[in-house]
Design goal:
The protein contains 6 helices and 11 strands. It is an alpha+beta fold and 191 residues long. A hairpin with a 2-residue loop joins β5 and β6.
């Protein structure tokens, strides 16, 4: 709403989808994509970073030992967001050393909110964007795990088709989103 108050003559058709859409055939001016981009003829600008956190509900942890290292995750029911290319390989860093673990679980989804609900109901552990669980962490509905290890962050890009690159409305929106994401507490790493 702040963007539309600032630019009242711009019309927005907001479409929410976790799938990678074909911008040209869908007639989209700009999309926001989280994760590494595949090589394409699209124009991309990184406008933010999604920090991720490994977490579980207190109910899950009451029945399972708390993992101390990424390798411990191989003994847990890990819930997958299946649209990332590294879906069953979770990567962490500690003191300059990379720790990679292949995880498995009995549930996965192509929707972040569905993974969130699975975690909240105590089904398992997820590696998810901090912004998705920001309020749940503050309220104690979930607990951050492996805090000595830094999960691999994901870039946030604004992507547009090459023929839309010079559009004033797209530039204004992308600039606005870059500023908004830089100020969003939900996108800051856990301290």
């Amino acid at each position: 709403s702040d963007f539309l108050q600032k630019y009242p003559d711009v019309q927005v058709d907001l479409q929410l989808n976790d799938h990678l859409q074909d911008m040209v055939s869908e007639g989209l001016d700009v999309t926001l994509r989280i994760g590494e981009l595949r090589d394409s003829g699209l124009i991309a600008r990184q406008i933010g970073t999604t920090h991720r956190v490994t977490l579980a509900s207190p109910a899950y942890l009451a029945n399972h030992p708390t993992p101390k290292t990424p390798q411990d995750l191989s003994q847990h029911n890990c819930l997958l967001f299946n649209l990332l290319s590294s879906q069953n390989q979770w990567v962490y860093e500690k003191n300059g050393t990379r720790h990679s673990v292949r995880i498995a679980g009995n549930a996965q989804s192509n929707n972040s909110e569905a993974v969130r609900e699975m975690v909240l109901t105590g089904l398992g552990i997820a590696l998810s964007p901090l912004w998705l669980f920001h309020d749940d962490l503050k309220a104690g509905r979930v607990i951050a795990l492996l805090q000595d290890y830094t999960p691999q962050s994901l870039p946030i890009h604004a992507v547009s088709a090459p023929n839309r690159r010079q559009s004033a409305r797209v530039k204004a929106f992308v600039d606005y989103m870059a500023d908004a994401l830089a100020q969003a507490p939900e996108l800051q790493a856990i301290k």
